[in-house]
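fyi for ur records
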Amino acid sequence: MTSAAVNPSRDPAWSCRPAPAEVRAFHRALPGYAPTRLADLPALARSLGVARLLAKDESNRLGLPAFKALGASWAVHRAVERAQGQGPLTIVTATDGNHGRAVARFARHLGHRAEIFVPQTIPPAAVHAIAAEGAAVTRIAGDYDAAVHAAARESGRCGALLVQDTAWPGYEEVPGWIVDGYSTLFAELDEQLRAAGARPDVVLVPTGVGSLLQAALTHYRAGPSASPTAVVSVEPGSAACVLASVTAGHPVTVPTSATNMAGLNCGTVSSLAWPHIERGLDACVAVDDSAAARAAHDLSAYGVDAGPCGAAPQAALRHPAFPLPLTPATTVVLLITEGSAAA
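which gave:
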């Protein structure tokens, strides 16, 4: 399969509803909230032949080393609010790292228990980080999709609240809350870009099941004033379900294998994200582990602390078949979704 492609179904006339305005007010009220920084990388921009290269650095978001805190905090809040009066709750989810840790953190913050299901490929350090948040961790003999199925079964068996960041038919409300939670990142980004005198031509988004990608597409394609900003998904070559689905013209589940981009190691696109991807996404790129590791090293030299998932957009920019034109007038934004401390 190709490792880069333009989306043949992209519809410039397509638009969607915006995220709810109250999400950012909720995040602003959380202890320790502050906008994450937007780093300007002029030397890297020159090496790529673009006008500006800016990196939205999520290596410290609400005390956690990844953007996932935004979606998890809002979704846990909404789920607990919905269950008000039921007493202490158990909140269940599956994860390949950062989402589960964030769910555990905010469940504990609200006085509830968390049970987190993880695939067999998850690094031991990630399991330790989740357990350190006070969660029970169950390792599944299978991949991320198997862990999602196990978490859903457990929540149905014991009446727990399932707070999962991927959707399937019949389970879409909670994943929608998670997507809405990510809108704070893009609201911050707009303000920071205006302050920097920049307008984004291309935004590159690390992509697993597609929830952050859906949030990006919601932001840039919402309403009658939809932005011309091109949005590009970036995945591991060993788990490129969005690329496979866009190429096929319908959702495709792909087999996955171990990758240093563990947080993107997902084989099935969220059903909630797919309609946004199908019509709103401009292009897809898949990168290999060595390219992600090199990109993390490059970014570190310029003061940006990125793990392989967070560095994947920088690796995509250097892909020899990058599917969109990059010129000396292009402004590019990288979403650095996690720091190196995100195991």
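The longest strand covers residues 113-119. thats all i got for now
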